[in-house]
Recover the amino acids of this structure.
């Protein structure tokens, strides 16, 4: 009986693996300066933007693909990727009625109905969504409501057209095009993304959200997110992602930059559910992302929360540079790997200002044949007096074929700094399982319960809407992993 | 001794390229008459050149700048100059069997071979390769892979001599064995001492290795490697004290293999020396093994200390426990890089690791990298690390009881270090180390 349920559960497939038949406007495969000119022209970009892209491309050509992470995979062929793919028709949309009905269906399937959101306008607190499909922003909701407060929330392309002074000032200021291999690639070929600016003294009334979707085959997704919180402002930002099931490995190389000014707070939450590949480890998305925030001025705060369940390979380190005095950085992460998934993820906390604080809570869960690594850096620079860090990295092993690894780097150059790090690795306690079963809870549910309890510290940090989704995701990702 | 000291080969070098040339020519000249297998030496030399002298780009040497150190002028062959009085001044322990390795060459002067306890063999490794060929070949260079570390490969290629210690089955050697590594050169030199210690089944032994220099104002670069085999049911208590002067640069690699039911304790005390890099690799190659690693490093001035440890759990039901503590002062820098590796089959492993540091100055640096790499699920592994300053409240508590600020701090630092020093089971050694710590805090 138990076996039957287990088999059913194991056979449960990735739920977002459908493909939408939307005609797409694709660039030819390959990468060269012409493609960059093509993208820039398509986006109708000003000269300075093209210059930036070309500068990044020329730098990228000089770089070598990094291989230091605890991952093994076939290196992507960068000439075999379509760098631009946009759903057609791409005219300016005035109302939702003009959006391609196929597209609307896609998002309904994904559980984010734009229609429904529209109806909910005026009803208290909902989410404003920017939807990015194949790296082109297709629709941003609630723009009007937000603009009343002076908040700018639009696609990156639009921001380049309408707010060039902001884009020019902040783009590349946190993640320069020279930062790393994939950041350079992104800077050269990024097609769209989200842009958000919260003016002085404004507390953003709703959760802002971006939904990323890879649809076309053979494409890479390269989007850029830039969030600026001006003095005394607050914003909570959500990011979600899915992709169709394909045999090939699709590349996703995004850049996210956060800037928090004096007394500002940015809360960035991610539920990453790219297609993880099938049970044999075939296909799946390569998720190579550079995410970094800077607490530019005093008393600012940046908080990263992530739930990583998808992607064949995850390689990302959302970081915080604590430059302002009394600034705070937080990182809460749950990373789940199953089957042949590999994750090398963690954070960097760079303490530069005085009285800065950072907290790192990382929970790794590995099942099947997967490998899950935490890699993190805590650096306390000279002169960063009274810096304080606490890190906790726990790993849970669900099978005897998987691996769980911890690679923390701690570099301290100031005597007043206090840094603590602790990590544990173990499997689910037999006694805990026994206790649950004794009370009539079956194994599968008991594991779900224990895992959710284990991740609670992190899940609690997610906004309400995401927390529910994340809990479900955890359950799906681990189905059938213990038996 | 089969090796005669030949004329010094000197070169005026400005980059490591020159050092590489020097090594190559010396290697070609000497490989045929040095102990052991020439083929192995050739493989090791190849491996060394493939790996190159590690720069800071090498993940394992991220926090030390070795390649820039090796840009100086060096010699590879050094005369023996030490006098008996000098040696005697270095023997800080009573009632021990003393072996001296001077500039990488074994010297048995203080050793009265007739009075050695039953079951104990001590000789130079060169002699062992001829007299005890079978044992030598069974164990020599078998405990590690030369391709994993450039300096271990270089030692294997260039080693001239060192100590060979063998303890027979079921023998318990009560008297500790003290190996004194001493550098006495007058010109900057690179030496490669190589020791092989074999503890047979059910045997027990205590071994102390100490590293020191005689003040001559010449830079000495000591690339030492000790292989230690702990066979089934054996118990080994191993100590290292590193007390070189400001001209001393030390790469100290210790490769340990443990067999079933064996117990191994190791204690590393880094007291001084311009640069100290410890590579301590322990392979737990059978079931029911117990391993304890303790370390204490006290750094000041411009010292650089880098402790690398690897505990490789290969088989089920083993326990390992690691504790490293450090006090960092002035412009010095200390690194702890500990890895616990649990292989697929090593179920029911318990592995713990702890690293605690106190930073006393504004210019000091502490880098710590405690790593877990785990491929088995039924394990209990944890690591913890903390770094901070001396607890103000504790200082206040002591001052409220009439202690001066300096003596309060001294007391607290002693207390901090005592967690490691208390694990020393040889009284004389414990007293010596405690005295050294007191001296250090004066």
């Amino acid at each position: 009986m138990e076996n039957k349920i287990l088999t059913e559960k194991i056979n449960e497939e990735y739920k977002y693996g459908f493909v939408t038949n939307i005609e797409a406007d694709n660039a030819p495969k390959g990468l060269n300066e012409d493609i960059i000119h093509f993208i820039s022209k398509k986006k109708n970009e000003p000269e300075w933007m093209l210059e930036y892209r070309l500068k990044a491309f020329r730098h990228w050509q000089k770089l070598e693909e990094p291989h230091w992470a605890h991952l093994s995979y076939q290196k992507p062929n960068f000439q075999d990727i379509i760098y631009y793919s946009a759903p057609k028709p791409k005219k300016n949309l005035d109302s939702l009625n003009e959006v391609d009905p196929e597209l609307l269906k896609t998002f309904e399937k994904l559980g984010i109905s734009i229609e429904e959101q529209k109806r909910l306008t005026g009803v208290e607190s909902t989410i404003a969504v920017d939807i990015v499909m194949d790296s082109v922003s297709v629709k941003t909701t609630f723009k009007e409501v937000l603009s009343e407060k002076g908040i700018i929330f639009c696609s990156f392309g639009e921001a380049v057209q309408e707010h060039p002074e902001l884009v020019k000032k902040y783009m590349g200021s946190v993640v320069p095009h020279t930062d790393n291999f994939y950041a350079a690639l992104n800077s050269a070929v990024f097609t769209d993304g989200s842009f958000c600016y919260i003016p002085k003294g404004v507390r953003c009334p709703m959760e802002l959200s971006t939904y990323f979707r890879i649809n076309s085959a053979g494409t890479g997704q390269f989007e850029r997110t830039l969030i600026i919180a001006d003095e005394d402002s607050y914003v909570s930002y959500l990011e979600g992602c899915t992709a169709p099931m394909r045999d090939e490995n699709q590349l996703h190389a995004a850049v996210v930059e956060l800037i928090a000014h004096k007394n500002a707070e940015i809360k960035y939450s991610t539920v990453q559910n790219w297609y993880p590949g099938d049970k044999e480890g075939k296909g799946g998305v390569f998720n190579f992302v550079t995410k970094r925030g800077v607490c530019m001025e005093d008393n600012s705060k940046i908080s990263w929360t992530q739930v990583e369940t998808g992607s064949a390979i995850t390689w990302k380190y959302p970081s915080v540079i604590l430059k302002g005095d009394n600034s705070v950085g937080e990182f809460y992460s749950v990373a789940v790997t199953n089957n042949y998934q590999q994750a090398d993820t963690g954070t960097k906390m760079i303490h530069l200002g005085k009285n800065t604080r950072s907290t790192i809570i990382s929970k790794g869960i590995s099942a099947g044949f997967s490998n899950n690594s935490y890699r993190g850096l805590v650096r306390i620079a000279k002169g960063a007096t009274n810096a304080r860090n606490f890190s906790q990295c726990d790993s849970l092993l669900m099978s005897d074929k998987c691996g769980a690894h911890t690679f923390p780097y701690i570099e301290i150059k100031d005597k007043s700094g206090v840094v603590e790090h602790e990590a544990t690795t173990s499997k689910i306690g037999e006694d805990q399982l026994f206790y649950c079963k004794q009370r009539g809870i079956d194994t599968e549910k008991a594991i779900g319960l224990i895992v959710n309890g284990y991740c609670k510290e992190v899940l609690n940090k997610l906004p309400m809407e995401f927390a529910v989704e994340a809990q479900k995701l955890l359950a799906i990702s681990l189905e059938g992993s213990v038996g | 001794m089969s090796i005669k000291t030949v004329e010094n080969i000197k070169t005026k070098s400005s980059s490591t390229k020159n050092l590489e040339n020097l090594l190559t020519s010396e290697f070609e000249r000497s490989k045929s008459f040095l102990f052991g297998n020439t083929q192995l030496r050739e493989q090791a030399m190849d491996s060394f050149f493939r790996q190159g002298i590690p720069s800071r780009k090498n993940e394992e040497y991220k926090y030390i700048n070795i390649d820039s150190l090796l840009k100086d002028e060096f010699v590879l062959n050094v005369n023996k100059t030490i006098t008996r009085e000098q040696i005697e001044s270095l023997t800080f322990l009573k009632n021990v069997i003393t072996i001296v390795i001077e500039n990488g060459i074994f010297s048995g002067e203080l050793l009265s071979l007739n009075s050695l306890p039953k079951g104990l063999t001590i000789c130079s490794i060169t002699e062992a390769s001829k007299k005890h060929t079978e044992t030598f070949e069974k164990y020599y260079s078998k405990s590690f892979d030369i391709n994993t570390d450039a300096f271990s490969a270089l030692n294997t290629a260039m080693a001239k001599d060192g100590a060979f210690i063998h303890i027979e089955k079921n023998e318990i050697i009560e008297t500790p064995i003290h190996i004194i590594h001493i550098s006495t050169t007058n010109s900057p030199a690179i030496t490669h001492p190589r020791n092989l210690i074999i503890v047979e089944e059910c045997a027990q032994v205590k071994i102390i290795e100490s590293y020191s220099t005689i003040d001559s104002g010449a830079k000495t670069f000591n690339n030492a490697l000790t292989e230690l085999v702990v066979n089934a049911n054996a118990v080994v208590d191993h100590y290292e004290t590193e007390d070189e002067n400001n001209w001393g640069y030390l790469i100290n690699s210790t490769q340990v293999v443990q067999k079933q039911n064996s117990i191994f304790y190791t204690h590393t005390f880094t007291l001084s020396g311009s640069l100290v890099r410890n590579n301590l690799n322990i392979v737990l190659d059978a079931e029911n093994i117990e391993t304890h690693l303790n370390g204490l490093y006290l750094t000041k001035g411009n010292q650089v200390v880098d402790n690398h440890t690897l505990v490789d759990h290969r088989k089920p039901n083993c326990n390992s426990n690691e504790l490293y503590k450090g006090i960092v002062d002035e412009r010095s820098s200390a690194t702890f890089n500990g890895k616990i590796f649990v292989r697929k089959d090593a179920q029911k492993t318990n592995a713990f690791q702890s690293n605690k540091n106190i930073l006393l100055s504004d210019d000091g640096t502490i880098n710590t990298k405690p790593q877990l790499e785990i491929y088995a699920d039924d394990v209990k592994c944890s690591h913890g690390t903390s770094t901070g300053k001396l607890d103000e409240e504790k200082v206040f508590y002591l001052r409220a009881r009439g202690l001066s600020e300096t003596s309060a701090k001294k007391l607290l630092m002693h207390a901090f270090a005592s967690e490691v020093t208390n694990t020393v089971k040889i009284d004389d050694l414990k007293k010596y180390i405690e005295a050294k710590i007191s001296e250090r805090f004066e």
User: Anything to note?
Assistant: The two ends of chain B are 43 Å apart (CA to CA). Chain B has a mean pLDDT of 89. Chain B has two domains: 16-286, 391-442.
